[in-house]
Amino acid sequence: MNPLLIANWKMHYGPIKAGGWVRAFRRERLPKDVDIAVAVPHVSLAAARASLGRASIPSLAAQDVFWEQDGPYTGEVSASMLEEFGVQYCLVGHSERRNHLDESNDMVAKKAAALQKQGIVPVICVGETAAQFKKKETNKVLRQQTTAAIAKLDKESKIPFVFAYEPIWAIGSGKACPSQRAREAHEVIRGVIVKKMDKTIAGNTKILYGGSVDPNNISEYITTTGIDGALVGGASLDPRVFGLLCRTAVPS
Ligand code: PGA
After folding, report:
1. Can you give the residue range of the structural domain that contains 168?
2. CATH number of 122's domain
3. What pLDDT digit, counting tens, does each position of 89-103 carry?
4. Which of 71, 73, 77, 112 has CA 20 to 30 A from 224's CA?
5. 184 an active-site residue?
6. Is the full-model pTM beyond 0.85?
């Protein structure tokens, strides 16, 4: 299984800067045997796609989706609309959305299922708050979030899904989660998939770590058993830094 590295720009870079980022990143020397994607704001998808031209690296990802196909849902974007841009991955349930927009586990499940139906790989984000971490509730929270998120996915689908374990206290804080702690969290997530789906699906599901990943600590995560890649926020905003991170993750 190739490691998967996803740049998450969050609410940065409109169409003009998005095009520039993609062109600059295309000039980076990139390792083989790694899957790379960039999650851009919806309004920048067209520009990112245009700057990619025929290139397939990085893959295009979106940061959110609505669960209905079309209809009276002002402001929302459906999975079929994302597909028109050749989007291959889409984040769902990022903690910033759960937090600022009250996204519930049920909404996350519906979004993930809509993506899978459309042939887009959902990247389901889960993770505990600092308070839950202190109260040692991490595993309980991860079990709840993971169980809910996969509830509407089709076990028979050929479209895989990805999880991203992102402890909220590690996001944008510079305090990355120790890799062994992340490893335990990944085991909990995988354990739920084994129980609710099956062992093969769980074995084929990539689980990424996210939270203050940068070129200095990426190797530590990527070499940890059960960590299949990373979701990278701050360190992905500069295409050269993200290029370096990709090269460090998978030295050629
Ligand atoms: P960070 O963000 O790398 O800036 O911590 C990660 C994320 O929220 O996806």
Report:
1. 4-248
2. 3.20.20.70
3. 999 999 999 999 999
4. 112
5. no
6. yes
